[in-house]
Design goal:
Elements lengths: L11 H10 L5 H17 L20 E8 L4 H15 L2 E7 L13 E7 L11 H8 L10 E7 L9 H12 L3 E2 L4 E3 L4 H16 L8 E5 L16 E10 L9 E7 L12 E4 L5 H11 L6 E3 L6 E3 H7 L8 H10 L3 H6 L5 H8 L4 H7 L7 H6 L7 E4 L10 E7 L2 E4 L2 E4 L1 H9 L5 E7 L14 E4 L6 H13 L5 E7 L2 H4 L3 H10 L4 E6 L9 H7 L1 H9 L3 E6 L1 H20 L3 H13 L3 E5 L1
The structure holds NADP nicotinamide-adenine-dinucleotide phosphate.
Length: 605
Amino acid sequence: MELQVSNSPFNEEQTKLLNQLLPTLTGAQASWLSGYLTALQGTGGIALAAQPQTGAPSAAIPAKEATILFGSQTGNCSGLAKKLSKKLSEQGVNVTLSSMSDFKPANLKKVRNLLIVVSTHGEGEPPDNAISFHEFLLGKRAPKLEGVSFSVLALGDTSYEFFCQTGKDFDQRLEELGGTRIVPRVDCDVDFDEAAAGWIDDVVRKLSEGSAQASAAASLAGTALTETESEYSRTNPFHAEILENINLNGRGSDRETRHLEISLEGSGLQYEPGDSLGIYPENHPQLVDDLIEAMGWNPEESITVNKQGDLLALRKALLQHYEITVLTKPLIKQFAELTSNPGLQELVEPGHEQELKQYIEERDLLDLVQDYQLKGIPAASFASVLRKLPARLYSISSSPKATPDEVHITVRAVQYEAHGRDRYGVCSTQLAERLQPGDTLPVYIQHNPNFKLPADPGAPVIMIGPGTGVAPFRAFLSEREETGAEGKTWLFYGDQHFATDFLYQIEWQRWLKDGVLTRMDVAFSRDTDQKVYVQHRMLEKSRELYEWLQEGAYVYVCGDEKKMAHDVHATLAAILEKEGGLSQEEAADYLHRMQQEKRYQRDVY
Ligand code: NAP
């Protein structure tokens, strides 16, 4: 039926344009457009013309809408949110998908079905792109949300005290504000695939009840969709060949930092500077053998390693499939149920929380079986309570433009002594000690839209990355050398000793000479009586640094989250106060705004 001014809310010119366009649309295009317009109205994504005061009601009434908000540090939550969006769209639900930092809180009142996918970091903190929304929702200005249905998927790690805290905060607050749960919150441990898939299926089932299959669209507000077309992913890693594996530290250094070059040839995997490489490691063979011996198991015994009933020889399963180096509270509780050891029973009883917390620190399964005589538990029962060995993420230190089909990483070998025994970082030690060029590793790309060079190649860039935190900045500068980006760049770098620990020294010097790097300030913490850190160098240059900020510089911080990132943040605030005459509150606002504008990005853990 042709549109007319009399049977539609459109004026003559609009009717003419629509009559030209509509007959040319395929079914899929028509349904996409319908969903798109609905989603835009829901979020205020574009400025639609003011509503007509009179006229016929709109013809296309959408089926259901859902707004998915994610808060993601490493990209896992954004990946799951996209998966959920796709599934809902396929069921005819109109989806708005957005990072929490891109979502306008004022639009919350318009949302009917709110789905939150969020991770937790450090001591129960939200990821950077969830901080403002978390603050808003938990604060006084949050609106009443009666009539809003919601559900929360929380990602976390049971080895941390405040497991899934951010997800729990959102879930509780949405209920307090009057919302109704679509399905209960699901808290996922590091091995989140199965639990997350279950939550997604439940949400999709609930929301697609009664929904027409027709109008489906995903409005990707503010989401950089960098999903590659590769068949390889986190759940199907590519077995990549190692091309180079060298120690970057000089003789006499306390540290060992490996530079690895890995071939992605034939994988179709693509990445950008700022992304990370996921690696599925293997446990240390000595630790596996010691554990098998302590338990008196047969290493060749077959055990079932998943719900599909796949069998693996015990030794192989402990090498490749199970986490054996981390103790968590839930794990200890499960072991207490498998044994009658009175000491372990007591450790999990109420009133012993502090003792339990202290015990699990820097201890592994070998300690547990030795300290609490767990010998006698059959291998299959023992394995059934273990977590799957999670992948490790390393910030990529190369640019695909400079080294196509390759990815480079910069990894510090973690080794220390605790409770009378040497301890080894699972992946870093495997990379440092047991892998040579020619060997292969299961890898995938973890995209990180929250750590990206500015779109404007002329914008100034400040990079702060002590230790291996400098890795992504090698990728940034490599990329800028290839693209000829003209904006000025400033790197703050530090490590213990100039002579042995100056990672990639020759490359920075070459980039300084060529103008790819405009300035570099270094802090070698143990070459002087007093410790000198990157933030001390920043303070020394506070005037210039402030000027760069005022010129619109983008600030990137990578490395240790616990101390360095906090100290650097405090130093940025101090510089704003000192040089800009801002109050403490104004400086905090300034940094907050920079974060909102993506001019202050951090890749820290
Ligand atoms: P590191 O231990 O961070 O040491 C690098 C330099 O930073 C040393 O000179 C150290 O001095 C100094 N430092 C210590 N405390 C500091 C503080 N509060 N503020 C500023 N500088 C401080 O180096 P690393 O072994 O390479 O470890 C880097 C950390 O970053 C690790 O925690 C790693 O997991 C993390 N990392 C994260 C990412 C990421 O999030 N994508 C990427 C790479 C690395 P002293 O040792 O003399 O005290």
